[in-house]
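Researcher: Please translate sequence to C-alpha cells.
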Amino acid sequence: MPLDDRANAHDRLRPPSLALLLAEARSIVEFNASVLLSPLLMQAAKGDGHPVLVLPGLLASDFSTAPLRRYLRYLGYQAFAWELGRNLGGVYRMRERVRRRLAAVHAATGRKVSLVGWSLGGIYARDLALHAPETIRGIVTLGSPFTGDITATNARRVYEKLSGEQLGGARLEDLQALAGDMPVPASSIYSRTDGIVNWRTSLVRPSPTAENIEVLLASHIGLTVNAAVLWAIADRLAQPEGRFSPFDRRGPFALAYAPPER
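Model: Translation complete:
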C-alpha cells in the first residue's frame, strides 16, 4: 500500500514553507558564529576515546561533516567519516554498505561505536541500531525525518530522483521500526525553523533512554556547525557507556534550547 494512501498510519504533514527554505542561507552565519564561540565550545565535556561514526545528509559528503569530526577529535574521540562518497540516498540501496562501514569501525577499534547522523544520515543510524545494537553505544540524529509522514520534506523529489527509491513505497514495517523505540540510547536534535524537513518528523517518543532536544532558530543545513548543536552532541557523547540521563540545558548555550516539555 503506498505511503500516500496510509491515512490511518500517518497524519498528513506539509514540507516547510518557502520562507523557511530560503532562510537556510543563514547556515553561513551559524558556522561563523561557531568559529567565534570556539573558546566556549572547547570547554565541553571531554570524551573517553571511543569511536564515533558520522553519517552525512542527502547530497552531502564527508567534507560537509569535517568540522564536526575535527571538533570531536579535539574532545578526545576517534571520529570516523563514512567514506562512501557523496550521499545520493537510498535507505535500502545503501543499507549493506553502511552496515559494512559500521562493522569495519567496530572491528578496527574493538569498542562500541556512537553514531551521529545528519538528516538522511540519522535514518541510516537508526536503521543500524536496529540491525546491530551490540556494536553501537548510542545514536544522535540531527534533523532526521524518521517518524510520521516522512514525505513532508523539501528534499523528496531530489531523494527519489537520485536514489531511485520512492518515499511512498517504503515498507510499513520498516517505517514503524525506524519510528519506534531504539535498542540503544537515542537523542534527536531538531529545530522548528528547519527549512528542509518538517520538524515533527524528527520527534522520538521520550523514554528513559530517548529524548528530543530542540535548538531554537537553527537551520537544517547548519545543524552540523551550529554552536548549540555541537555543545549538545558533545554532552550526549560524553555519557558513560551503559548510562543515560536527560540533556542538561544549562550552560553557555542555555538560551538556545527550548524547554524539554514545550
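Researcher: Any highlights?
Model: Residues 26 and 228 are 15 Å apart (CA to CA).
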